[in-house]
Structures are given as C-alpha cells and as structure tokens.
Design goal:
Largest sheet: 3 strands, antiparallel
CATH architecture: 2-Layer Sandwich
CATH class: Alpha Beta
CATH topology: Ybab, Chain: A
CATH superfamily: Nucleoid-associated protein YbaB-like domain
Strand order of the largest sheet: 1-2-3
Distance between the termini: 23 Å
Number of helices: 2
Length: 105
C-alpha cells in the first residue's frame, strides 16, 4: 500500500515539474485574434498581456468611435479566450485528460 503511495507521489512530483516547464513555455507564446473582418488585430502573450494592437486606418471614423472600440474589445477578448484554450489543451496533454482542479499541481 505504501509503495503505491510513494509511486503516486513521484508521478505527481514529475507532473508538477512538467507543468512548470509547460507554463513557462506557454508564457513565451503569443496568440492573435481579429475582429471587423481583420480591421483590428490583437496579439496577446501567454501571460495574458496585450503585446500588439493593429487597427486598419480605414475603420477609424471620428463619427463612430463606438464601433472601433467594440472591435478592439472583441479582438482582445477573443485573443484572451484563445490563450485560455491553448493553456487548457496543453494541460490535457500533460495530465492525460485528468480533470484535476486548478492549482492542484
């Protein structure tokens, strides 16, 4: 019984190390999303920091700033969602599909 517990602890420790490495790698990656048919492009790092924002000058209309603001928000939020999705996919690979609670490892 105790041998199995020891093996389980070793596996968990190995998984923790792999997870730390994976998280470090994910933080180096970036994802991008667009809105308005590509008029606004947002790039977000794995750390969920906005690192680039491009706006097509053709969509800058002083009479309709609300539309531009909505496109910026949509692109940034989609990029942030993609970071979460990327992280979840990598976690599944690491844990073999185990649905471990966040923060366990």
């Amino acid at each position: 019984m105790y041998g199995n517990m020891g093996n389980m602890m070793k596996k968990l420790q190995k998984m923790q190390k792999e997870m730390a490495k994976m998280q470090e790698e994910l933080q180096q990656r970036t994802v991008e999303a667009t809105s308005g048919g590509g008029a606004v492009r947002a790039e977000v790092s794995g750390r969920k920091k906005l690192v680039a924002l491009e706006i097509d000058p053709a969509v800058i209309d002083p009479e309709d700033m609300e539309m531009l603001q909505d496109m910026i928000i949509a692109a940034v939020n989609e990029a942030l969602r993609k970071v979460d999705e990327m992280t979840m996919e990598e976690m599944k690979k690491l844990t073999g599909g185990l649905n471990l609670p966040p923060g366990l490892l």
